[in-house]
Amino acid sequence: MFVFFLAHKTNVCYNSNGDNMYSYIVGLVTEIGSNNIILENNGIGYQIYTPNPYSFLINEDYKVFLYQLVREDEISLYGFKTKEEKDLFLKLIEVKGLGCKMALPILATGSIEGIVDAIERENVLYLKKFPKIGDKVARQIILDLKGKLVSSTIEITPNKDYSELIEALKSLGYKSGDINKILPNIKEDKVEGQIKEALRLLLK
């Protein structure tokens, strides 16, 4: 009943799929802790666990994408600045043996691009650098998520400027998910060479 009351009295939005999970909240950051922020919305302060609390500023308004964890002994909110970050978090907590408290530090110390690339390349050493991630969990992450992260919802933004290449491939009818899969393997610097290399990889 408590959650039901909040949903009708504040501007918190729920997902439309009926799973009672928050989608996002817009409000003012009033406090910053070591692993959370307090975000005020309509006079209510929400404690939200987030990967990088100090990337927020006190007395500034933010749109925070939320995940609500509901257990018999716990109701917690986890928040993210972007939908892509939230989407990756949701994928990570699906991994066997990897819960919210282990997934959050991964996002705090790694970039979306680096995490996705490590999983796709089966880079166990990269994944083991994160807190509490040993060899077994790292391999489980790869087993459960390889091939499932590169999609239209989790976009890879590579270090190189591939904007012209991406536009060229899209004009040829290739989808974002397929393009993102091969971008980490592009070695050429010039657009002409990138296109040739990309087409060769896409046709494999």
Query: Which geometry do the CA atoms define?
Result: globular
Q: Helical percent range?
A: 25-40%
- Name the average pLDDT: 82
User: Would you count the extended β strands for me?
Assistant: 6
Which sequence of SSEs, written as H and E, runs from N to C? HEEEEEEHHHHHHHH
Global Rg = 19 Å
Task: Please tally the helical runs, counting DSSP H or I stretches of 4 or more residues.
Answer: 9
| Main pleated-sheet profile | 5 strands, mixed, barrel
What's the N-to-C terminus distance?
54 Å
DSSP strand content: 15-25%
Q: Low-confidence parts, pLDDT < 50 over ≥5 residues?
A: 1-20
From the helix content, strand content and strand pairing, which structural class follows?
Answer: alpha+beta
Main sheet: strand order: 2-3-4-6-5
Oligomer: single chain
Can you walk me through this structure?
The protein is an alpha+beta fold. Helices cover 39% and strands 21% of the residues. It has helices at residues 2-9, 83-92, 100-109, 112-120, 124-127, 135-145, 163-171, 176-182, 191-202, and strands at 13-14, 22-32, 36-41, 44-49, 61-71, 74-80. It has a 5-stranded mixed β-barrel. Strand 5 and strand 6 (74-80) form a beta hairpin. Helix 2 (83-92) crosses helix 3 (100-109) and helix 7 (163-171) crosses helix 9 (191-202). The chain starts with a helix and ends with a helix. The model is unreliable at 1-20 (pLDDT under 50).
